[in-house]
Amino acid sequence: MNLTPEALFGLTGKIAVVTGATGRLGRVMARTLATAGAQVWLVGRDSSRLDELAAELLADGLSAVAARCDVTDPDDVQALGVALSVGPGRVDVLVHNAHVGRGGTLATARTEDFAQAADLALAAFQRLLAATRDLLVRAAADSSPAVITVSSMYGLVSPRPSLYASPEQVNPPYYGAVKAGLLQLTRYAAVELAPQGVRVNAITPGAFPGGGDPEFLKALGEHSPLGRVGSPEEIATALLFLASPRSSYTTGANVVVDGGWTAW
Fold first, then answer.
1. Is-contact 77 54, C-beta < 8 A?
2. Strands annotated E in the chain
3. Residue 237 in 3-state DSSP?
4. How far apart, in whole angstroms, are the C-alpha atoms of residue 21 and residue 150?
5. How far apart are CA 93 and CA 148, in angstroms?
6. Cα separation of 115 and 152, whole Å?
7. Residue 212: pLDDT above 80?
8. What is the pLDDT of residues 104-119, one digit of tens each?
9. Which of 7, 109, 119, 172 is most buried, by the most CB atoms less than 10 A from its CB?
10. Which of 137-141, 144-148, 181-185, 233-237 has the lowest mean pLDDT?
């Protein structure tokens, strides 16, 4: 067996779509897939940030397309599907990573917060699948296309309020609720799409904070067995495994990258 990196994880000639591409994890995921050889369609709501990221990747000799799309807007998602259809004509990797971060508790969360979170995590995933399903199936004719959702450790366990300085900073209840729902929707999609050769898996990141108070980060890290928070780059290997055709017999799985947080 050829065990070179290209043979194991190479995505040369593949088309990848990453939602939430300009976010903390999204940027790393987009660069990881592009470095592996894929043409990455960068999806997000802010055109200027998408153009900036695309320019960075292109300057490094990578292939990227800025594709402005609000995944909560059905018309935008449909237009994205059309653009992919008349462009590359296939999708080999679809990463659903869109996320908006807020704080809150049961006492402060509003009904509309739950609805908006569900729309972004769950309904948007359904829209994306509807817009790209035929393109994923087309890729299955000569490869093993992968759909990858991004959940959270808080879809498996509750946040610890004592770690946060104020109720406004606590990870809100609707975030974990919809991320748990996304794991179930991932399993559902995996079963439905398996006969068509499309794999659907999830990655569940742990504590990957985007900076902040050093004392808070220290306390957060101490609650994982490895004793530290993660860096976005540590998600890359799990992503490549699930995106690569080498994981062709893996579907309906949840790869947890959390430093052991959910192990105790």
1. no
2. 15-19, 39-44, 63-68, 93-96, 146-150, 199-205, 254-257
3. helix
4. 12
5. 8
6. 18
7. no
8. 899 999 999 999 999 9
9. 172
10. 233-237
Question: Structure pTM?
Answer: 0.95
Q: Are 233 and 29 within 8 A, CB to CB? A: no
The amino acid sitting at 131 is A
Q: Give the separation between CA 142 and CA 197, rounded to whole angstroms.
A: 10
Lowest mean pLDDT across 61-75, 102-116, 147-161, 208-222: 208-222
Catalytic option among 164, 174, 175, 188 = 175
Long-range contacts of 111-116 (CB under 8 A, 24+ apart): 113/172, 113/174, 114/174, 114/177, 114/178, 116/72
Q: Which domains does the chain have, with CATH numbers?
A: 5-258 (3.40.50.720)
Q: Cα–Cα distance between 35 and 60 in angstroms, integer? A: 9
